[in-house]
Amino acid sequence: MNDLIIAPSILAADLACLGEEVDHVLRAGADWVHFDVMDNHYVPNLSFGPVVCQALRRYGIDATIDVHLMVKPVDRIIPDFAAAGADLISFHPEATEHLDRSLQLIRDQGCQTGLVFNPATPLDCLRYVLDKVDLILLMSVNPGFGGQKFLPDTLDKLREARAMIDAAERPIRLEVDGGVGPDNIEAVVAAGADTVVAGSAIFGQPDYAAVLTDMRERAAQ
Ligand code: DX5
Ligand code: ZN
């Protein structure tokens, strides 16, 4: 399996000083920046768009920016995020009319692709597009808000996705997002996740390095 990637969700950061927060969490040992984009249409909340992604790049952030689109439609905003410095762009299959076309659009823009599955969305469509996907993201909460409780049924779904990835024999990452922290990282990694999003569990603590170390140690158990 791939090495563990921890991707703090900046939704939980102090947005009044976002550049410093992201710099701080990366120096504390985080790997990627998880960038939650909400449009008050696909999900009932509003966050930030490409200008904020571009601002992080201008600030000097050079880590992988993992953009999680919770917007509908997706195609119009994909080139803007690519131009703003996104490395990886993920979207929900329900949010596009043409799944294959949206994946191809992301690749054409030079970014890696991700597909996101809500807790009640089956993985069925994956088998038709597995060769065009670099990351599978399983939501372990209903999307729209940080700080929610992890839904334990996600563990079975992680095992199902892990089996599909292993059978595909491609280096697809398996990410989990929502309510993940030191208390359940061991379980999600054991179920097959190799990429973990955590918002409030990291930014809600004063010592980011201590949480990240704790999470890595528990994941390795
Ligand atoms: C939810 C977002 C998550 C969320 C994670 O819609 O996609 O990335 O912010 O936050 P925590 O870790 O606090 O659940
Ligand atoms: Zn997210």
UniProtKB/TrEMBL annotation:
Entry EC no(s): 5.1.3.1
PROSITE patterns for the chain: RIBUL_P_3_EPIMER_1, RIBUL_P_3_EPIMER_2
According to its UniProt entry, one GO biological process term is: pentose-phosphate shunt
Q: Which cofactor does it need?
A: Fe(2+); Mn(2+); Zn(2+); a divalent metal cation
Question: Which pathway does the record list?
Answer: Carbohydrate degradation
Which residues does the record give as substrate binding sites? S9, H68, G144, F145, G146, G147, D177, G178, G179, G199, S200
Q: Which InterPro entries match?
A: Aldolase_TIM (IPR013785), Ribul_P_3_epim (IPR026019), Ribul_P_3_epim-like (IPR000056), RibuloseP-bd_barrel (IPR011060)
Reaction catalysis annotation: D-ribulose 5-phosphate = D-xylulose 5-phosphate
Give the matching SUPFAM superfamilies: Ribulose-phoshate binding barrel
- Organism's domain of life? Bacteria
Please provide the record's keywords in A-Z order.
Carbohydrate metabolism, Cobalt, Isomerase, Manganese, Metal-binding, Zinc
The cofactor note reads: Binds 1 divalent metal cation per subunit.
Catalytic residues, per the record, are D36 (proton acceptor), D177 (proton donor)
In which residues is a divalent metal cation bound? H34, D36, H68, D177
Q: Name one GO molecular function term.
A: D-ribulose-phosphate 3-epimerase activity
List the record's Gene Ontology CC terms alphabetically.
cytoplasm
Q: Which family does it belong to?
A: Belongs to the ribulose-phosphate 3-epimerase family.
What HAMAP family does this protein map onto?
Answer: RPE
- What does this protein do, in the record's words? Catalyzes the reversible epimerization of D-ribulose 5-phosphate to D-xylulose 5-phosphate.
Record-given protein name: Ribulose-phosphate 3-epimerase
Species source reads Spiribacter curvatus
Q: What is the lineage of its organism?
A: Bacteria, Pseudomonadati, Pseudomonadota, Gammaproteobacteria, Chromatiales
